[in-house]
Amino acid sequence: MPKTKRISNWPSAIVFDLDGTLVDSAGDIASALNELLESEQLAPFSLEEVTRFIGDGITTLVQRAFIARGVVVGADELSAHVTQFKKIYGSRATDLTRPYTGVPELISKLRRRGIAVGICTNKEEGLAQKIVHALGLSSQLDVVVGSRPNRPAKPSPVSLLETVASLGVSHAEAIMVGDSAIDMRCAQYAGISFIGVTFGYSSPPMSELSADVAIESYQDFDAACDFLRDRRR
Fold first, then answer.
1. Of 17, 142, 183, 212, which one is the catalytic site residue?
2. Which CATH code fits 13-25+98-232?
3. Tens digit of pLDDT for each residue in 25-51?
C-alpha cells in the first residue's frame, strides 16, 4: 500500500467500512448464499432479505440464513457450511460488486489533500484485499484491515484502532465511515468520530441511529467533515 503525506488539518485519516459503505457487494453475497442453501434443499432468499443478514462476518451470515429457514445447525456443521460458502463466494466476489457512486473520486480527493485512507471491515482480510484490488481501489489505500482468526470483530474497537495505528495517526485525528450500528458502536468504543451512510445495509436504518452525522451520498461527505470539525472547536 502507498504511503501518504500527512497534513496538520483535521482529520488526518479516514477509515471506511467495506460492504455497504464503499462497495455494494450484496448481489454477490446473495448469489453465493443462495447456492449454498439450494445445495441443502433450502429455499433461496431475495436480495433484500440477504442484506439484512450482512454485517457481522461470514459465520453469522450463514447462521442467520439457516435459522431463518428454520434449521439449527451444530458448530461442526456450521463450520462446514461456512467453508463451502467461502469457496463459492471467493470464486465470484466481484461479479456484481461495484464501488458506490463517487467512491473512487472521493478517495482520490482525500489523498490529494494528504489524508490517509484505510479500510476496516469484518470481511476476511484476504478477501477484502482481493475485492479492492479487483475494483481498482487498492493503489489508493494505505491499509486494508479485515477479519483474522485471533482478531475480534467489530463492534470491538480492536481492528479499528489497529487500522488507525497503521495509518500513523491517533484516534483523535481520524474519522470512521460506516453503514451500520456495528460500525457506529465500534467508532464510539474507539473514541473516533463517525459518519454514517444511509445507503448501506443497516437494520435499523442509519437515520434511526445516533451517528455523529449521517450522509445520503458521498456528495455530502465534505459537509459532514466540516460539521464534525466545527463541533470539535
1. 17
2. 3.40.50.1000
3. 999 999 999 999 999 999 999 999 999
